[in-house]
């Protein structure tokens, strides 16, 4: 089990984000970001699971992000599959691939439009309960409540997840400034632990450097409160030094022009080392992570774990495979020193290196954030376009 | 057939590069860059074929890059599969997926270590012949000689390919400065057409802007010579404004820190339009292309082709899917105008926007470029490291 | 007098930094940074005073930076003039030009090698006393203690300056993190006001944005303590978003490659407005400021001051002079909107946009910072070069 | 005389551009760019001459740029001084300062609105003649025809200058693409030599790298034509890798946001060496050059010239003066190796590194370029603003 591994001091390598990776492969639609592909295109989801397993992941997380019924019905997006079908298919795929290697299956839930639309605690918990029922029936190994911007909703999720008796991990998508109501990372972590989470941390919205920094603040908070927990981080694979409190969603490049920000494998090795040094033992990724990013984590921590991942069969550590390159000046790059020092160019001399984030200074409770089932109309979009243009 | 389509004025969408995409997925080793995965991990290769098909590709190119026997034996890289096994498996996979949609199968050969090591014309042609035999036996629809730095070797390849009676396309990996012996793009194209290629163009080594410019020069050369041909381009998905004659191989970021240079889908739409305007009708990609890049080509040229690719089921044209996003300021990005004007930031303020290429000013014939079968020794690497460090 | 003007709510425009401007003109040596030019090349100093006066400065600050006797003898730098001669000449030049317009003369003292070398309070105060004696004899209008990294030394200076009965301004060269002993800007300001300064603020070491932010923190501290003061800012004319606590000294570009960081006149107008909005009424500049930068401050605050500076005779507000340019597309730049939106390119695609500062984590009290009179020997430099190279 | 020096193989160091330097000091108005300050504020012009002399200049060029009568009357700019007064005052100042050191006086003429407005050869020559009369009367040492975009007008100028019997230098403000009518640099140079110029070269509009490259092309042209000449270069002190044929005028940053492009002193030493290696012996500067830039040229070529300039009294070669800096990590920068390798950051992470030039594809003969005496009206400006905004 996950807790046995963490209690024993093992490093657990997580997987990467499915929605972004599958969007690039043609199976997830940006905007709704829903995971119907688990039922619709299982071969694509299975293949991505396999690649992460091969890259060194110890956890196959069910591809059930935003698979709550209220989200699946959101904004005019019609579905060919019920929420239950999607959740079941995702569990089956995760289990199938986990069995091919040394991996656990984690059932995942995430934040809901119901909470953002100010529905009651009962209503929101009912949403979570429907997903949990599938996870229990499919007997996943543990549960993850992830991608919450408000610690209150995460607490509710943890409370529901705890009813299963399975281990519970909880991650927020916040940075050092805290959740969208201004609760500090330390206080957030204490509340999640008190709600019953055995593993707490951060996922998505910020780059590895920021996420590790925020998990450190969570750890300090938990320790100061005299509590105990394990820590996890699943950051973006995008550099985001210019983010505000809301993270990469507010960067003007989100979600279709983030390419120049993608981390290299060497950036990832640095992240893995820093996360490890910060006491984080569940180390994975989120949006932007491709299998080779996860492999870089596993390679950096190979001394601690005692082995390389299967995928390293096709990778020379620190570029050593280049000793077989045709040209001698490329063979001269077959070494750690070269790649660690390199400051990679963007090839984009007409572009800046940082952006000014959007974000209209509102959060849960504001009318602009009430979610609707109907498709957004042109009449609704027009004032948004105008407002954005004036802000530029 | 491919010629019927091109003769009819159709746009043919190519696929993207397999070695880079599969390297990130854990199935190809950077350095040797050989395609043994076709035999070793067919499910991964099949899935990538499917993603390109779904993205709109009309051609499934066999994953036989560098699958010549002399390359497979190169530099201490031991193989579990014979060249024949790899070539056969690649043909079967391409055909299997092509049959799932409207696609042709193209058998591909590429430049050889034998040529670089100054072997005779007969020796080099024998190498090509072995791959061709498999393509004939597996009855591919047409043949592509691609990724040649010296037009002479490409001519030899075309001559061998022509013996099959199948249509032949030939692409060089050169830029406006011409091949590594200084033959201009126009002259190169004329020689390839005279050797028997019906389709000529450029693949790899340079970004779309450079490739389109170079194909234009080829077209001018062919027309000036009173010849006729179809034109194709399969560029990198990396911005390379800072390349010298040898292309991205010589950029210090090659191959492990190219991330900041990756093109966005909007960059790709611009490429598709410029290629089309230049009279290129076989429009695809090479290293760095992911399925969503190919889809962007198919979406840009949907008016000309009359349909969207299957993968657009999961993509709102020009970001329109964002009208379903949770936050109103992200919904304000659901429009063409927004994405066309955006200058995406790198998130890397400590990095430059252009690099100075390596490249030691040598080409075929120089002793430093003689290839060997044995693994490169530390004694061989040490002087390369020293030379590179002094050059920095 | 200065206090009458500030008490009346007037905006006082300061001058720019003399050492950097005169270094570029060939009269100050970078490294020692001493002001012997006041005696040696009075025509150059007089001309710079005149240009600042013409640009709108209300204060002619004596060119007596680092003109303490202990600094003038520092590190093997031999002088043809005594400290007294330099201080006297500087007073005469300032007074001569001030009389040509509406300006006051301010005598200035700055931090001393004696303090850094841990000399006693009495020793340090004796150093200041020698400069003050000249200022009293030459009857300057008020006094400025500027460029202090440690608030303690600034307090000592203020105490000496107060003995003259003249108004005293005191500025530190610190940022939001406080002085080099970690005293916060708010606490620093309170200590300076209690020591007797009527005007407090920040000069040098950081860009305008950072300086205004820091003065705001000083103002909050002073107001929270129930005290009263006037506020001044004299920042760098260099963008320094990447500075650590020690400011631009620690940037690798200091002092000979700062050019790409130089503020435009439009950046300066933004600074003037932000300083004014923050309640700062003594608004000037320091290193990097050229006369046109000061003019930009005076032009931005012309509505508040009721007049344009003399130098605006040769400047069209917001680029309006371009309506006389030869080429119509340059005439199209004759407007505020154009210049405010422009993001100026560096023309340096091989350079980054931010640097990692040096700074060896030491301050007053550390042996490495003890100052010496003898020239630095090669034996002393060698270990510094080695240490720096390893740190790169 | 200038020819004796050049014939003897001496390096002649030119001065820097007066209009830009004096604009920053408050004595020249950007837009008209006229030199009335020679008569209006002689102390400012004299001081700048002195600084260049001290920095190592061997030539004091009269501050008579755009001092032709037709330009002085241009676009509603009213003058308190006649053209003759300005030209006379400029000659006197240049001679006065030249006498203080080892410098020659050069009288300068530049392109005219009359030519751009398609006036006749006679009309244009009459304009030049009026300036020349003053130069002859004041007995300058030689003449320079500079800043011509069309070689035809430069030829006319040279023909007029030749009538004086004094040595004549002629520089165009063009790049490798040639003059605005498309005449190549080589052909331009041949025409200027045939018209009678003994010294030919390039000034303004492009950075040193581009100018040296263009002068090389001129030299090749002259040598190929079997002619002889001396060569000179007086480039910008701004990096302009992104210019089109019209040079920095067309960069969106011209003229008020060029700061990030300013060359460092180390960039200048590189320029001096490259110019020298290209066979250029008259090496100076134009817009953007400050005295310390000229000093850098003189320091780089001190081995060839046999002495350092007077201004080096205040400058340690290659940063050696920093061995006297207070902080040891700054003393570690007192060496050539450090400054040569440094890639200076812009401190502007929100800005790009290159720009897209304006330029509406028109030149002499187009109605939009006809010059007028009356001030530009708002009615004339409005369509220019609109056109520019659409182009953005």
TrEMBL record, chains A, B, C, D:
Keyword Mitochondrion: no
Ranges for domain Hcy-binding: 1-301
InterPro entries associated with the record: BHMT, BHMT-like, HCY_dom, HCY_dom_sf
Coiled-coil region: none
Region of interest called Disordered, as start-end residue ranges on this chain: 373-392
GO MF assignments: betaine-homocysteine S-methyltransferase activity; zinc ion binding
The keyword Metal-binding is annotated on this UniProt entry: yes
Pathway in which the depicted protein is active: Amino-acid biosynthesis; L-methionine biosynthesis via de novo pathway; L-methionine from L-homocysteine (BhmT route): step 1/1
Cofactor: Zn(2+)
Subunit record text: Homotetramer.
PANTHER family: BETAINE--HOMOCYSTEINE S-METHYLTRANSFERASE 1, HCY-BINDING DOMAIN-CONTAINING PROTEIN
Function field: Involved in the regulation of homocysteine metabolism.
Annotated protein name in UniProt: Betaine-homocysteine methyltransferase
Organism expressing this protein natively: Lates calcarifer (Barramundi)
Name of the gene encoding the protein in the UniProt record: bhmt
